[in-house]
From TrEMBL:
This is RNA helicase. One of its GO terms (cellular component) is plastid. Residues 173-223 are annotated as: Disordered. It is found in: Plastid. Residues 521-611 form the Helicase-associated domain. PANTHER family: ATP-DEPENDENT RNA HELICASE (PTHR18934), ATP-DEPENDENT RNA HELICASE DHX35-RELATED (PTHR18934:SF136). It is an enzyme of class 3 (hydrolase). GO terms for molecular function: RNA binding; RNA helicase activity. InterPro entries: Helicase-assoc_dom (IPR007502), P-loop_NTPase (IPR027417), Peptidase_aspartic_dom_sf (IPR021109), Retrotrans_gag_dom (IPR005162). Its EC number is 3.6.4.13. It comes from the Eukaryota. It comes from Cuscuta europaea.
Amino acid sequence: MQPGWPQNFTRRPYAKVDFPKFDGGDPRGWILKAEKYFRYYQVPDNQKVEIASMSLEGEALDVFAWMNGEESILYWEELVKLLQENFGLAEFQNPDEYLCNIRQSGSIQEYRQEFSRRVSRVHDWPEHCLLGVFINGLKEDLKADVRIHKPRTVYQAMSLALQFESKLGPNKGLSKPPYLSNNRPGQSTPLTQHRDTKAATLSPQGGYTTTAGHSATAASVTANRSWESERQLRRDKGLCFRCNEKFGPGHRCKTPTFSLLELTDSREEVKQEEVGSELSGEENLHDMAEISFHAILGKSTGATMKLRGSLLNRQVLILIDSGSTHNFISTSLVEELGIKEEGVSTFGVEIENGDVIRCNKICRDVSVTLPGLKITQDYFPFSLGGADVVLGIKWLASLNTVQANWKEMFMIFYLNGKRYKLQGIPSTSKQEISDIENLIVAPISKASARQRAGRAGRVRPGKCFRLYTEECFINEMPSQGIPEIQRSNLVSCIIQLKALGIDNILGFDWPASPSPEAMIRALEILYSLEVLDDDAKLTSPTGFQVAEIPMDPMISKMILASSASGCSEEIITISAVLSVQSIWISLRGVQKEMDEAKSRFAAAEDLLTKQTIHKGHESAGLYILDTSITKDPFLTSR
């Protein structure tokens, strides 16, 4: 037995396997076969280079002899690196970036083969990141169809894409030419206007081959005819247009569907031949960005990490999120620091639950500073509830290989030859939220001031004295009052919409749209109550149970939780008292007497005090107004 061989080594009784030869070209296939050979024959590490070097021929042997003469190559990893640097394909010198840039230009089968080829070069990518890259590289119409069905794995996304392609025909995705993003309304300018063009498709070797292109008009007619025939077939069978279930009064699709945003206003169809080449990086960037639900709420999960940093000498909370495709910055922070915004063509920002928000601005070259590291990226302004800045896949992909431990909250990467380690901080929000609502004193509107002028109250004559100056009236007071929907707590409203199957909350057609911050705040509360899950869906059974109780969701959750503690009767009493106006009557000039009256029912907490009053009322006889309790001048009988 040779020195260095394991003591328990036993020769394989199987057929002899020859070590593969290598004389140049892409070394990946040879490396895979060599590693299989090493495992098959249980070759020790100190023997691998010696065995592999004997199979090198031609140019590969010359390179090995040259490099080994200058510095001995002792380890297999060193030999692999040497061959990859000298013979590897240029596009795979940075395999992570090369994978992120994949775009479909041919059939799904060709795209799947190219995707598999690129994936085989990267390591330690989580499934949801691979899924995001695969879907993002699909043609726009196929991308929308696949997204609607919410695949959880790359395999599911591939299967869905193949089904949609076979169902809609090979011309799917060629019905409309791409347009420039800066056209004026009513004008349409195709990116390319060549007559005899060919559509570029990826070859299995990674290059490009050309096939005859189809007319945009013909493709459009084919797609329209296909949809018309399918729609008529569904109408004849009584099926829903969106799903395959029977359609009838009150029908609701089991699989939710979402409407994606149009990129621009209405445009004319331009009858031009189309080139199937992929869009420029700028147009692709604005097709559809994705942000995770956790990034909006600022929650730490198994694939996110929070850091403290600074931006323009202001401390900011940074969330590194592998579930967001791009980088985002809080709109409130942009306004506070006066960060310059640049207008871009309108695009959609899709949240994990399917909500799509319009966005048409970008903040370019914004620098965020971490200890020992400066990050300069482009950011989309977005309403963020729990963080100031979100760094997504757009930034992570630029780091090439990243070693991340989400449990211990740290990540290690190399940049410009220097090693960096970012240590996360425990889950926190950019500001402490007390969950206590309060009323803020604010100026009334000009309309309210005019309505009250010349009378006291609403129906009786009298005098009205203005307690504000003319300057205040002109410069500070708003013209109209803020609609109630924009001032109210949206928690109850949103949970009712969720219960009705309306998931696109941020894109819902409100009569008077509340601010995104108010909606995000309501979503934060529902998420903390465990009424919504990670996908912003109602949880089962808690979420649906809370939605069925016609009370504030906080009180409803308290009632449901009381059964486990055996205090349902007391909690229901407290909930009933909290759901009405104050039980105390305020009278002027009798503060001492009021305090004495309250002390007779005093308990350790305000809620227990109200429970004591209610019990006393019940013991004296419910609804009997001549009892000792309801005779108290400071209590209302209601």
